[in-house]
Amino acid sequence: xxxxxxxxxxxxxxxxxxxxxxxxxxxxxxxxxxxxxxxxxxxxxxxxxxxxxxxxxxxxxxxxxxxxxxxxxxxxxxxxxxxxxxxxxxxxxxxxxxxxxxxxxxxxxxxxxxxxxxxxxxxxxxxxxxxxxxxxxxxxxxxxxxxxxxxxxxxxxxxxxxxxxxxxxxxxxxxxxxxxxxxxxxxxxxxxxxxxxxxxxxxxxxxxxxxxxxxxxxxxxxxx
Length: 224
Description:
Blueprint: H1 10-14, H2 23-38, H3 45-52, H4 56-62, H5 66-93, H6 97-112, H7 121-128, H8 135-157, H9 163-182, H10 189-205, H11 213-223
Helix pairs in contact: 2-3, 2-5, 5-6, 5-8, 6-8, 6-10, 7-8, 8-9, 9-10
């Protein structure tokens, strides 16, 4: 059974990224902070350099352009978030894979109500770099695919008959919840989505196949 995530702060659930030790690390840390708060296109290179407390010479020693820094920022954030989300889900959900899947929504609820929430960095990156061939877009997409694969792994461990179908539908629910929070400004988005997540997980763990995607698409079209 999932613990109450409200008893934990976001910092306690996720931990903190390791402190920067080199000029390159400082540039990446500054880039992550500023790009997440203001957007990739809303921050100039000089602002990142000043925030990092390094010189332009140091910047060009490590990166050829702002885009190259942005790629490094997304990849660094990917490594940290992947570990942090997995740890947070295990903290709330324990060792049971089905409980850990539901724990993602409890963790999202804590994150959504943190004053530092500025959306999902990877959705933001994909939107600001819409060309799917762009390296920043690809780095963001890699994170999203890895997250979906992690859901598939947990579903398989929980005994799902069709882990791929479950992972697709669970990912759709997670991504929709992120949009409900960020675009609709619903700080209760995770709580609103939790019953649907619970039904999906219950169907998986009782041996029933998740609702067919074709039927789900048809219902979505009718309701739209």
